[in-house]
Structure formats: structure tokens, C-alpha cells
Amino acid sequence: MNIGDAAELSGLPAKTIRYYEDIGLVRPERGGNGYRDFSKRDAHKLAFLGRARSLGFSIEECRTLLSLYEDRSRASADVKEIAEQHRDRITRKIAELEAMRSTLQTLISDCHGDDRPDCPILDDLSGAETVIE
Amino acid sequence: MNIGDAAELSGLPAKTIRYYEDIGLVRPERGGNGYRDFSKRDAHKLAFLGRARSLGFSIEECRTLLSLYEDRSRASADVKEIAEQHRDRITRKIAELEAMRSTLQTLISDCHGDDRPDCPILDDLSGAETVIE
DNA sequence: TGGAGGGTTCCAGACGCGGGAAGGTTCTTG
DNA sequence: CAAGAACCTTCCCGCGTCTGGAACCCTCCA
């Protein structure tokens, strides 16, 4: 099938699929006209990649997951470890974002938000000591 | 002061400071030797930028915040709106990451993680229907 | 026959820097 | 006063993951 069909089947944009070929994640055949010719297996791999990416795995993790997927003698422990590391990274990222949000929320709550210039948000960013209320 | 001192005062790497000059966030003077010459005001702006960045504001938001900071006739409402939009973006990002983490955790829990190849994580990524337990 | 709607390659850009090369300047040490 | 360490400069490349666009080729249908 052509790249358009592979895109529709896998849910990935054609541009992304070409990129994935560039970096060696898929290796479709080529027809006599130079067009890529994707097998069902290729389309399936692309869909696999799409799902893994949507769970936030990096391209390199996807590459590893894909090779494990195609390795009949894999150990599920290897897959699990990748997933756990990724989960832990997500957990840390969430904590970081929540710290930001918390600080932001405090500043936002302190800002009256009218047409006067006084602004605790800017005060904080400018390094002013916390104002005594 | 030289860039090294500005870096130490602001907590930003010299590389970052040069980049900020490139994109017009700061405009230090130049000495006769071609070295940048930062005023205290410049260093203060850099520290402002560092704090805003650490709260996750984009460079363009930082640019706006900085111009509001330097605008004596600003309305605090303008600052607050930027902060609120940013907070909302963070909130959405957290929700997205939590959805990923939740899915990952389910898959991880279902994976026995030994040296056998059966793996619900790969099954899920490959698009297999949920297995009846 | 002509045009719409595929496909191809290649280059640039996005974000926010970091690394490193090649070279000039200034400070410190002996 | 000379040597060398420790600064500073500019420039270009690379990171990750695509996305947009230009210029061009191929196929199908009316």
C-alpha cells in the first residue's frame, strides 16, 4: 500500500512515517515508480509506534520496544523495566509541573488583576522579598 | 561587569545570557575590548528571566513579562492573564501526563516481568484487544 | 488532454539552549 | 617581563521530533 493508506491505517501523518523511515524505524519496500510500498506488517508497526509515542515513550525507547516486540525470545522483565523507568520519569515531571502550578497559583491569587500597576507576580519575578501583609 | 559576573549574579550560564542578547532580551553595553559590559540593571533583568523561565514561562512570555515589568503604567490584569494562561497550560499538561501514567501503571501491574516473553505491555502497544482474565 | 490528487526529495524552522573550535584579552604567577 | 591560566569573542553544529513548504514526478479520471 502507498504511504497515504499506511497513514490512514496507522493514524500517523505521512510526514511522520517518512521521518520514521529516515531514522530506521520502518523499512518499507519501494515500487518501480519510487513510491514506498508498505506491507500490513509495516502498517502494524507504525500503529505500534503511534501508541507507544502517545504514551510518551521516546523514539529510542520505541525502537527498543519494537525490537522486543519482534523478538520472540524476549523477557517481559526487559519491557517492564523500560515502562517503569518511563513511568518514573513521568512522575518526576508531574511533580515539577505541580510545583510550578502551586507557585503560580499563589502569585495569581495575590494579584488583584485590575488596571493598577502593583503586581505581586512581577514583584516575585523581580526577586523582591515577600511583602508583609 | 563582564559576562561571568553577570552569570554568577543572575544564576544563568554565560551561554544562555549570550543567547538572550541574540534574541533581544537584554542589550548590554560593549567595552573597548569588545567584551559585554553588564549594568546591575541588566543583571537584575537576567535574574528576572531566570525566575520566569524556572516557572515554565516561554521565552516570548518572558519577553512580555519583562516589558510589563519595565512599564510603570502597566495593568496588573495583563500580567495576571499571562500567568493564568500559563497555569492553565500546565494544568492541561499535568492531566495529560497523569493519563499516561495511569495507563502505564495498569500495564506495568499486569506484566509479571520475568524471563518469559508474554507481555501485556507489548500486547497493548500492538493493538491487541484486552485479554480476558 | 488536462488537471486533481497522489507521491518523491530536500531544506528550513520550531524551542532553548549546550558543546566545541579558533582566536583575542586580561589576570596571575614566578 | 614572560608564560600560561582564565577569561572573553564569534561561529557553527547538534539535540528531539517532527511540520511546512518548494520543486518536481506519477497516476487516475472525466
Topology (elements, then pairings):
Two copies of one chain form a homodimer.
Chain A: H1 3-10, H2 14-22, E1 29-30, E2 36-37, H3 40-54, H4 59-69, H5 76-110, H6 120-125
Antiparallel strand pairs in A: 1-2
Helix pairs in contact in A: 1-3, 3-4
Chain A binds a DNA duplex (30 and 30 nucleotides) through residues 2-4, 13-16, 18-19, 23, 33-36, 53, 58-59.
Can you offer a commentary on this structure?
2 copies of one chain form a homodimer. Chain A has 133 residues and is mainly alpha-helical. Chain A has helices spanning 3-10, 14-22, 40-54, 59-69, 76-110, 120-125, and strands at residues 29-30, 36-37. Chain A contains 6 helices and 2 strands, in the order ααββαααα. The first copy, chain A, has a two-stranded antiparallel ribbon. In chain A, helix 1 crosses helix 3 (40-54). The relative contact order of chain A is 0.08. Chains A and B meet through helix 3, helix 4, helix 5 and helix 6 of A and helix 3, helix 4, helix 5 and helix 6 of B. Chain A binds a DNA duplex (30 and 30 nucleotides) through helix 2.
Descriptors for this entry?
homodimer, 133 residues, mainly alpha, two-stranded antiparallel ribbon
Low-confidence stretches of chain A: none
- Biggest pleated-sheet summary of chain A: 2 strands, antiparallel
Specify which chain pair forms the largest interface. A-B, 52 and 52 residues
Termini distance of chain A? 69 Å
Strand composition percent of chain A: under 5%
How would you sum up the global shape of chain A? Answer: elongated
Oligomer category: homodimer
Secondary-structure-derived class of chain A? mainly alpha
> Helices and strands of chain A, in N-to-C order?
HHEEHHHH
CATH topology-level name of chain A: Multidrug-efflux Transporter Regulator, Chain: A, Domain 2
- Average of per-residue pLDDT values of chain A: 94
What's the number of domains of chain A? 1
Strand order, largest beta sheet of chain A? 1-2
CA-based gyration radius of chain A: 24 Å
Q: If classified by CATH, what would the architecture of chain A be? A: Orthogonal Bundle
